[in-house]
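Schema walk-through. Below, the input block comes first and the output block second. Nothing else is stored per chain. Lengths vary across the set, and this one has 137 residues.
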Amino acid sequence: MEPILYEFYQHMKNGKILGLCCKKCKTIAFPPRGLCRHCGNAESEWIPLSKKCNIVSVAAGYSAFFPSSPFILATVEIPEGTYFAVPLYDEFFSFSDNPDCIWEYYDSVVGKNGELFIGQNPAGAPMIAVRLCTCQV
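--- output ---
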């Protein structure tokens, strides 16, 4: 595993959601990368990211690793100005017998506020996910 990703997961195990801030241009990288995507600089520092976000888009899918577990992937924007995709956790949504219900769900969640949290994937590994909330972004 890349040292940056190892350190990222260590922070997650300690309950922290962190990104990397380029020391040269201040671009935020999440997930973390070795080089700044904007200027190519290799020097960066860990910064805490807001747990509040705006849900920009959602899509339904199946994982190659867990084909019997459909999931919803949300693209979110955080106040720090970066976008990324994370699983959307919603205990009230079910694919039931109609996979097309994702389109109605899409209309009901896009533009809503969310809260990032550290959860577990079906294999028990830590992952960052989002849930709907009434928080202000």
